[in-house]
Amino acid sequence: MSMTLALTTGPVRQVTRRAVQVAITLFGLLLLTFFIGRVMPIDPVLAIVGPDADHSTYQQVYHQLGLDKPLWTQFFIYLNGLAHGDLGNALLTGKPVLDDILRVFPATLELATVAIIVGAGLGIPLGVLAASRRNSLADYIVRIISLAGYSTPIFWVGMMGLLVFYAWLGWVGGAGRLDFGLDGVVPRHTGLMTVDALLAGNGQVFINALKHLVLPASLLGFHSLAYISRMTRSFMLAQLSQEFIITARVKGLSVRHVLWHHAFRNILVQLLTVVALAYGGLLEGAVLIETVFSWPGFGSYLTGSLLLGDMNAVMGCVLLVGVIFVMLNLLSDMLYQCFDPRTKS
Fold it and tell me: Which of 73, 109, 134, 220 could make an S-S bridge to 69, C-beta 3.0–4.6 Å?
């Protein structure tokens, strides 16, 4: 009886503790963002009424936004609305912030997902290759690629990519998610343009969306590739110097078997965190690429809201970013349980 109770209360206690940690993290994030937004030298009222509005109009809007109330009162009013699923209305569009986020986020999700597939799919093998051939030509080439991916400004790479692959060669699509004549042809179900085109059975829209997606996603993937390959190389070097690796080689096991079945399996848990954090960074940090490619995504929406001083939209975006990183960390912990039995309690 006592053993059964211990087995059931253990996971419950762990889930409860994690839920409390998530709630505290998100509350602190909201609190910090709210008060920073209120002290920013940007007047959201002027963004609505314009600089030529009279004083009475300014005061009316100021009162409607609740800016005449104390900061703590404003914050708890916002939390009360948040508890009922209301993130407020965006100044930029005049629509509910939640509707705006649901409209723009799938574009960034599609872009970041393809980018992380490119980054992890190429970065991990390159990191393993560089570690297995340390200080060789292959190692130096991988390190140069990583350095270039980190040091080259992403907006410059984006403009050069458009110039070469779109304007000169015509291999890819231009700015936006589709050509102008194809916009709105397929119904929106998921917001992922390639998926919606497949669901509609429209091959022309799918090919066109893919041509617009491949360049910005590849450039973002190259940026994440630099980070993932460098971390993979570092993890692998640490493993390859261990005694069990030397023992496996002495036993006559092939280099490939030692690399992938012994060393790589031991760094898989660490790589999960690296890839998860890289993916989260792509979801909320693709602002420059979205600007260069006129990609109507989450990063562009957040940037426009910040410049306008639209704190309802900014708070909604910050909350989403916080939830993304928290969920990715939870997913990493769950995958730890699958790949590393030592983490099981």
Answer: 73
Cβ pair 301, 287 in contact under 8 A: no
Q: How many angstroms separate the CA atoms of 57 and 275, rounded?
A: 50
Q: Which residues contact 55 (CB under 8 A, 6 or more apart)?
A: none
**Full pLDDT tens readout for the chain, 345 residues:** 444 444 445 556 766 777 777 778 878 878 887 777 777 666 777 767 777 777 788 888 788 777 778 888 888 888 888 888 888 888 778 788 889 999 999 999 999 999 999 999 999 999 999 998 888 999 999 999 888 887 888 888 889 999 999 989 888 888 889 988 888 888 888 989 999 999 999 999 999 999 999 999 999 999 889 899 999 999 999 888 888 877 777 777 777 878 887 788 888 888 888 898 888 888 876 788 888 898 988 888 888 888 777 878 888 888 888 888 878 877 777 776 666 655 554
Helix (H, G, I), strand (E, B) or coil at 81: helix
pTM score of the predicted model:
0.82
CB 74 within 8 A of CB 66: yes
d(CA 216, CA 222): 10
Euclidean distance between the first and the last CA atom of the chain, given in angstroms as a whole number:
19
Residue 299 token pair: 């990063």
